[in-house]
Amino acid sequence: MKVFIKNTVFPLCMIMLGAACAAFSIECFLVPNTILDGGITGISLMLSYATKIPLSIFIIAINIPFFVVGYRHLGKTFLIRAVWAMGIFAASLLFFEKIKTVTESELLAVVYGGVLLGTGVGLVLRYGGCLDGTEIVAMLLSKKYGISTGAFIFIFNIVIYSTAGLLFGWDRAMLSLLTYFLSYKMIDVVEEALEQAKASMIITDNATEISDKIYKRLGRTCTKISAEGKVSGSSKVVLYCVITRVEVSELKRIINETEGSSFVTISEVSEIIGNHIKSSEMKLPDRQK
């Protein structure tokens, strides 16, 4: 029961808190002052301004195809948590829409709105959810073209803010861009994992099973390194693999559900040269029994 609460209930609660926090920021700080967020939310905000249709409808409708793509590449658990996050986010937007704006000061809206938005998104990402489909697409494009995920997201948001400048004035675009930088920094602080690439070293007694699960569920290959315990003198196997930040939670689940002793470290990777991502559709090589 404790394991279920820790691995399932608690992450869903934190995702709910993060989604509600992000929705509060958008409806009570950003929207009343015509300040846009980036990504799909930014596009949805512009469409909502133009059509007067509730923001939550556009966010759900536009994100659906991106979540389908995410399910195909990141698995069922990701889809469940992403749908949960999006449902809470949309419901919270409808709820906070009825609340009077917190401040009419553009400076306060940028600062507090950006901080709250980054905090909310950071919580969602930290516990395996997702609020914006552009991040999924950016990761997939990064794998294909070798350009960082952050670069794709930044380019996409520059297009959004340029469009906002043409529609609402360049002062709105500059305020929106400043809010984006503040929220981006807060994601770093809250999630502690803003860098897309993570290096994982797993010292385990069950290397074969863990490496197979990582390959099947994350599409990553592992490098096996033979080692020896200094105190025990027994032989060990160290698995080394590179994953993305949204896959860290799935890696933890793989470790927790696998029998045997495992010691795991996860660190940031500043640069990757060469291909480190394999298709999860490839078959595992036959192992001799």
Could you explain how this protein is built, in words?
With 289 residues, the chain is α+β, with helices and mostly antiparallel strands. The chain folds into two domains: 2-191, no CATH class; 197-268, Alpha-Beta Plaits (2-Layer Sandwich), CATH 3.30.70. 63% of the residues lie in helices and 11% in strands. It has ten helices and four strands; from the N terminus they run H-H-H-H-H-H-H-H-E-H-E-E-H-E. Strands 2-3-1-4 form a four-stranded antiparallel β-sheet, with helices on one face. A hairpin with a 6-residue loop joins strand 2 (223-228) and strand 3. Helix 2 runs parallel beside helix 7 (149-168). The longest helix is centred in the first third of the chain and has 29 residues, at 2-30. The mean pLDDT is 81.
Task: Note the overall shape.
Answer: elongated
Query: Roughly what percent helix?
Result: 55-70%
Strand neighbour order, sheet with most strands: 2-3-1-4
Helix segment tally? 10
Using only CA atoms, what is the Rg? 21 Å
Between the first and last Cα atoms, what is the distance in angstroms?
35 Å
As residue ranges, the low-confidence spans are none
H/E element string? HHHHHHHHEHEEHE
**What is the count of distinct domains?**
2
Largest sheet: 4 strands, antiparallel
The strand count comes to 4
Secondary structure class reads alpha+beta
Average pLDDT score: 81
Strand content: 5-15%
